[in-house]
Write a structure and sequence with these properties.
By secondary structure, this protein is an alpha/beta fold. 42% of the residues lie in helices and 21% in strands.
C-alpha cells in the first residue's frame, strides 16, 4: 500500500498557501481510499504566507475545468480543517489496512515542504513523518518510463493529479521490480 498526494498552491516556495489537497491510497493500480479538500481562500489570511504573482498569473492561464475545480467549488473548508482532515484520513488509511507506516509519494522538493509549513503555520502537527516522503521524479528517472496520457482527469486538480500519479507510480514500481 502506498499514498500519493498533490497540492495546489498560490506560490512555488515552501511559504506557499495551499488551496487544494488531494491524495489516494493505492496498491498495484488499485485505488482504495481518496481524499480531497479545497480551501477557502479567505481562511489563508493572517498566517504570513507568501503569494507568488507569477503563480497566480499561471493559474489564470490554466484550463477552465482546473480553475473551477480549485477556486469555484461550493465544498470549501478552512485551511486548518483541511489539514486536520488530512491527518484523520491518513490515520484511517493506516488503521483500515493494518499498517504502521506507509510511503507518501509526491514531488518531494515541492509538496512536502509546503505541506509541513502549512501544518506549522496553523499550529497542527502532521501525522506523517518526513522520512516517509518519496519522490516521483527520482522514481521516474530510475524507471525511465515516459509519462502516460491523463485521459479525462483534470490536470491541476489535486485529486485527479493524485489518481494519475498512483497509476504512474504503480507502473514505474512494477518496471523497476521486474528488472
Amino acid at each position: 500500500m502506498e499514498i500519493t498526494f498533490d497540492l495546489e498552491t498560490l506560490s512555488t516556495t515552501n511559504q506557499a498557501p495551499i488551496v487544494q489537497i488531494g491524495a489516494v491510497a493505492f496498491e498495484d493500480m488499485t485505488i482504495y481510499d481518496k481524499f480531497l479538500r479545497t480551501i477557502k481562500i479567505e481562511s489563508l489570511e493572517g498566517y504570513g504566507f507568501i503569494l507568488d504573482y507569477r503563480t497566480i498569473k499561471w493559474w489564470l492561464g490554466q484550463e477552465k475545468k482546473a480553475i473551477n475545480s480549485v477556486f469555484f467549488t461550493k465544498e470549501e473548508v478552512t485551511l486548518d480543517t483541511a489539514l486536520n482532515d488530512f491527518n484523520i484520513w491518513y490515520k484511517n488509511v493506516l488503521k483500515n489496512h493494518s499498517l504502521k507506516k506507509i510511503d507518501l509519494w509526491s514531488h518531494a522538493t515541492f509538496d512536502p515542504p509546503i505541506l509541513m509549513n502549512n501544518y506549522k503555520k496553523v499550529g497542527l502537527g502532521p501525522s506523517m513523518h518526513y522520512r516517509q516522503f518519496k519522490d516521483i521524479r527520482t522514481l521516474s528517472g530510475l524507471a525511465n518510463l515516459p509519462s502516460k496520457d491523463r485521459g479525462n482527469l483534470i490536470h491541476h486538480n489535486a485529486l485527479d493529479d493524485s489518481i494519475y500519479q498512483a497509476g504512474y507510480i504503480s507502473e514505474m514500481l512494477k518496471k523497476i521490480k521486474s528488472k
